[in-house]
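Reopening this one. Same input as before:
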Amino acid sequence: MKKGSLNLSIEAIVIVVIAFVVLGLGLGFVRGQFKSITETTTSIQDQIRQQITEDLRTGDKKLSFPTNEFTINKKESTVTAIGIKNTQQGTLKYKIDVQRTEGGNLIFGEDVSDNFLYVRDPEELLPTETRIIPIRITS
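Same output, byte for byte:
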């Protein structure tokens, strides 16, 4: 075996090892970033959930929204929730209906139901039961 070809083989092995190390570090960094984003989102969802639950419990309300207006920029999203509590003696049947009031163009056509993904069938709540429905709004 010639000295030149051996030298080239060693250089190729070193380059491959360095490439794998850099790839591993990059993947570790990206995974860490996604983990922190997930933890932050979970923390926000838990805070919203606690706020809504407390509002329903102390305010003796049937519905609770943490805010009535959202402002988000293009390609951004926000997480919120709706709280529903059954204050009746019997089972409560409810249904969520999304309606367009004004502003902006719809993304997938003029029918609102084509632009939102949600359960359209009636749901049921037992007496004194509370349900928190998470909502992600993306522009």
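So the earlier flakiness isn't reproducible anymore. For the record, The longest strand covers residues 77-85.
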